[in-house]
Amino acid sequence: MRVEGRKLALVGLEPAELTHLVGTLPGAKPFTPAQIYAWLYSKRARSFAAMSNLTLPMRRELERMFEIGLPTLENLSCSTDGTRKYLFKMTDGELIESVWIPEPGRNTMCLSTQVGCRMGCRFCATGLMGLKRNLAGGEIVGQALCVLDDIGYRDRRVNVVFMGMGEGLDNYENVMKAFRLLTDPDGIAISSRRITLSTVGLVPGIERLATERRAPKLAISLNSPFDHERSDIMPVNRKYTIASLMDAVAGFMSAQHAGKRIRLNERVTFEYVLLKGVNDTPAHARELIRIVRRVPAKLNLLAFNPTPSLPFERPDEPWIESFKQILLDADVPVSFRRSRGRDIGAACGQLVTAHRSQPGQKRHDEPPLTPVRVATKPAGVRGIQEPSG
Ligand code: SF4
């Protein structure tokens, strides 16, 4: 985002944009934009002075005209389980959160896509904030660069989930720009198969995603198999019913398979937050099974983490167990996950709301979550790995 009086940020620019901007600077060679691009995203230089293969006059000119443009770290909380939660301040002063979730054999970054959110899910504190603004592509990818810098992480085998603050499909262009930058082999070079976009089910966005040549994997925050109940806890369902959502998901998977963009055994993730007395009965489990069977699906099940400002409770353990067992008995791939970083309030939105002294919890109720148990039925179905919000 451009703020008056500040130089233009280079992080967030794609190769053609960078060429347009710096290719005509005095002394620029045809390869200069590619050099700068590599410094920004691949070699991760954090000053123009560090771009050692550029001439000194070029480095001075860049310094005069531009800034690298990464978010400012406002606060960092480190959990005993290794989870790191970042509170970033944008150039206009708005605050967002990102999370680093280390696990044996895999590491995941959870990124925000908006400041606040207008979807109004009743179990989510970010929803209580309302939407302040979309994040620019550079602000989304900038979170990833800052987190990787902090960790000192240079391995490209890292997972990215768009499930921090905000609804990714409500900020489609910027999220896809961030996706392209994150996956560009000449830049950050994370595999597109390691990137997941979580959505409450904005049908036009899913349909549009199906037309993309390359797209992130899809996770659907479902939370009830019944329209009237889902509409109550997730207002988006009043506009896009479960049937229309499943049509769009089926279309997305068909398009992905037709374009050979995903493996044949790829599955859509459905996230389900168990809310006591709301969506945790055997009838819910049975209807959930019926719905998700329409597409290759896996279920991420989690129990609500109670927060004073939100009118829900965590189901009792026997109810959770019996819900899980019904899914397992039906041979639906399911994982049940525990939250990470509870000691640092790693639920998305908690840091921002605490910073602003507002009540709240976060997105999709729990956020950075990690699987503790994976059931794989039928044989050959891989366990669910990615966290979801
Ligand atoms: S759960 Fe996600 S989509 Fe719903 S209000 Fe929270 S951030 Fe927005």
Describe this structure in words.
The chain contains 13 helices and 15 strands. Residues 357-389 have low confidence and may be disordered. With 389 residues, it is of the alpha/beta class. Helix 1 crosses helix 2, helix 5 (137-151) packs across helix 6 and helix 7 (203-210) runs parallel beside helix 10. The longest helix is centred in the middle third of the chain and has 17 residues, at 242-258. It folds into two domains: 9-54, no CATH class; 72-375, Aldolase class I (TIM Barrel). The protein has helices spanning 15-22, 32-42, 56-65, 125-129, 137-151, 172-183, 203-210, 227-233, 236-239, 242-258, 282-292, 317-329, 350-355; strands at residues 8-9, 66-67, 72-78, 84-89, 95-103, 106-111, 114-116, 131-134, 159-162, 195-199, 217-221, 268-274, 297-303, 334-339, 369-375. The chain has an eleven-stranded mixed sheet with strand order 3-4-5-6-9-10-11-12-13-14-15, covered by helices on one side. A two-stranded parallel ribbon has the order 1-2. Helices cover 33% and strands 21% of the residues. Strand 9 (159-162), helix 6 and strand 10 form a beta-alpha-beta unit. The structure holds iron/sulfur cluster. Iron/sulfur cluster (SF4) binds next to helix 4.
